[in-house]
User: Which sequence fits this backbone?
């Protein structure tokens, strides 16, 4: 546990959010860099990164990831966590390729198959083993993303088989349509299923974003906000920027007596390569 501090992650773009949903969505390299700088200044320690093609469509192209990561690195020290969840329809090979080629500090590792509205994302146990093995070989710290209670228990298999090494960091995702809804009881069930000593970030999708932030603080967890999860600041009012959502997360954390952690806090605590 980071005494007196809380880690805030900004998931600024995602794979499914569009400019039509919020015109401030960062898509270009320049927009993502500006967002990363603003989010860092607002209190975020981690940038959860999806990248887009010039036409705005999602891509797992390592070249595009490299371009964005290098541009962000030139402007801010924020920890970069890339996605391996990708977008609906991406193959496991496509999703994993940037990890092996770019060796980022952190990356998400989905711990099971999940309904995703009318679609689904497949993560079989053999696929998860392959991802975990690749993460370990390249020194990448996973965020073990869990969309359901069974996903947490699936991660125990990877730990038992020696494919994951501590410290363990989980990402609990709530309110994806047709997956686990947000509630304090569901968060507590997920938290209790973790291995001892693990930490967790809470991600509330859509209207559950703000309640999930309060729930995270109450349960001793960390917070994720951003346009990947929610494009609104309040009912009927679009967020002006990702940074505006980070600013609120930092404010409510401070009101609870917690200070937003810095990127170096995260690097030291999670033993990242840096």
Assistant:
């Amino acid at each position: 546990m980071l005494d007196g501090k809380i880690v805030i992650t900004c998931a600024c773009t995602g794979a499914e959010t569009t400019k039509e949903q919020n015109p401030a969505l960062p898509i270009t390299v320049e927009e993502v860099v500006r967002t990363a700088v603003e989010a860092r200044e607002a209190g975020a320690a981690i940038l959860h990164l999806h990248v887009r093609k010039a036409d705005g469509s999602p891509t797992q192209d390592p070249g595009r990831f490299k371009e964005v990561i290098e541009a962000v690195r030139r402007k801010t020290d924020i920890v970069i966590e890339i996605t391996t969840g990708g977008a609906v329809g991406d193959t496991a090979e496509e999703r994993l390729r940037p990890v092996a080629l770019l060796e980022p500090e952190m990356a998400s590792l989905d711990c099971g198959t999940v309904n995703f509205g009318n679609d689904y994302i497949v993560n079989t146990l053999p696929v998860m083993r392959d991802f975990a093995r690749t993460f370990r070989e390249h020194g990448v710290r996973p965020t073990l993303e869990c969309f359901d209670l069974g996903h947490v228990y699936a991660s125990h298999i990877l730990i038992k088989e020696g494919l994951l090494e501590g410290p363990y960091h989980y990402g609990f995702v709530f309110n994806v349509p047709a997956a686990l809804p947000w509630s304090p009881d569901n968060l507590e069930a997920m938290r209790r299923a973790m291995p001892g000593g693990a930490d967790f970030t809470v991600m509330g999708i859509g209207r559950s974003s703000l309640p999930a932030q309060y729930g995270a603080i109450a349960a001793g967890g960390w917070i994720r906000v951003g346009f990947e999860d929610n494009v609104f600041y309040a009912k009927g009012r679009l967020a002006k920027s990702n940074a505006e959502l980070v600013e609120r997360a930092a404010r409510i954390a401070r009101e609870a007596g917690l200070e937003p952690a810095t990127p170096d806090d995260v690097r030291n605590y999670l033993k990242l390569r840096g």
The chain has a mean pLDDT of 96.
